[in-house]
Amino acid sequence: MSLNNKIAVASLGCAKNLVDTENMLGLLAAEGYTFVSAPEEADIILVNTCAFIGDAKEESINTILDMAQYKQEGNCKLLIVTGCLAERYHEEIKRELPEVDAIVGTGDFPSICSVIRDAMSGEAVCLYGHSEDFALDHMPRMLTTPQHYAYLKIAEGCDNHCTYCIIPSLRGKYRSRTVEDIVDEARHLAANGVKELLLIAQDTTRYGTDLYGSPALPQLLERLCEVEGIEWIRLHYCYPEAITDELLNTIASNRKLLHYFDIPIQHANDNILKRMGRKTNKAQLITLINKIRETLPDAVLRTSLIVGFPGETRADFRELFDFTAQMQFDRVGVFAYSREENTPAARLEKQVDPRTKQRRRDKLMALAQVISLEKNKSKVGTTLDVLCDGFDKESMLYYGRSAADSPGVDSLVYFGARAEVSPGDLVRVKVLCAQEYDLMGEMVL
């Protein structure tokens, strides 16, 4: 087949899935393929899907159907579906979506070049069931994020087996990359202009347990801090029961390590936490949060919460609401429980009706917005370090993120500047105005 074929890619879901997409792009680029952003111009369209919850599945299916139209209206000769939806629903895709020419599960994406060759020759490709079979070593990668920041996946899979979650069956058991391989990729990223590393895994705090016999995240962080060119290192997906004093002290003693904690606690009622298969209770969560704030008074706490879990009563939700108000999280994501087939939680009695779930979600998000506004107001008059992400032509302001803000999920800081600022520049901004989520200010020299 001709490598003159142009490829368009749609990447859905989480940052971990995005890294898989970037690895596929790297592998394809190494083979000489070219890429286009407009799907109507593409000869090959690749959709890397998510299937974590109902909304994600719906988005994935709708995107596949949208892209399938270009087989009639555009140049598309080949439509490839990869990722979690392909792993989970490969038979359904084959049966219901005949427009799809190749189905590639979570463990088979490293074979994307041979998949395209086989599909172009007329073979009906369907690869799945190998989520734990591929090597985790650093592979070619083409960043789709701005040049100055990148996600760095340090492990794959999950061993936690929360009762509502399908990820272990889609991504396999927890497998860590070696410290040396991760540091080598970090050096490569830094050499290409990356200044902020965002460390990701399904559970970053258990990094190294499988390779080294005990958690090795503090040691990995210390090694990453030595990489020249990296200015910020941000941690995502820290499970509360695995946040140790050693980890907190490591973060406190290294200036590159942002005091940013993404801790998915999911709930605050002990009975609901137990039914979820979580490994902490309310008292332990309060103790941990207080310890983080005592060790790092400027710590930014982000969490995710699930409302409407089976058996959640009005009293249980009120306890979660009051807990959220008490803990004053800086960043909160609230999700209505999604009943996923083949999970233990799907079989639980006392499922909560959709309207109640949505009502509880809206109420908790309204509280989170109030807390966010008050916290933002307290920043007026202060000066923040901001990593510039770009220039907004509509407002005629630059925008970027402080240490409190992770890309795509948190807020922005908009600022004026008398001198030209480029994406990736780390500048000082005095905050002049606060909104519910975003801040506005002026760069100071």
TrEMBL record:
Domain TRAM: 377-445
Cofactor binding summary note: Binds 2 [4Fe-4S] clusters. One cluster is coordinated with 3 cysteines and an exchangeable S-adenosyl-L-methionine.
EC number(s) recorded for this UniProt protein: 2.8.4.4
Keywords: 4Fe-4S, Cytoplasm, Iron, Iron-sulfur, Metal-binding, Ribonucleoprotein, Ribosomal protein, S-adenosyl-L-methionine, Transferase
Protein name: Ribosomal protein uS12 methylthiotransferase RimO
Every Radical SAM core domain range: 144-374
Protein's organism: Candidatus Aphodoplasma excrementigallinarum
SMART domains: Elp3 (SM00729)
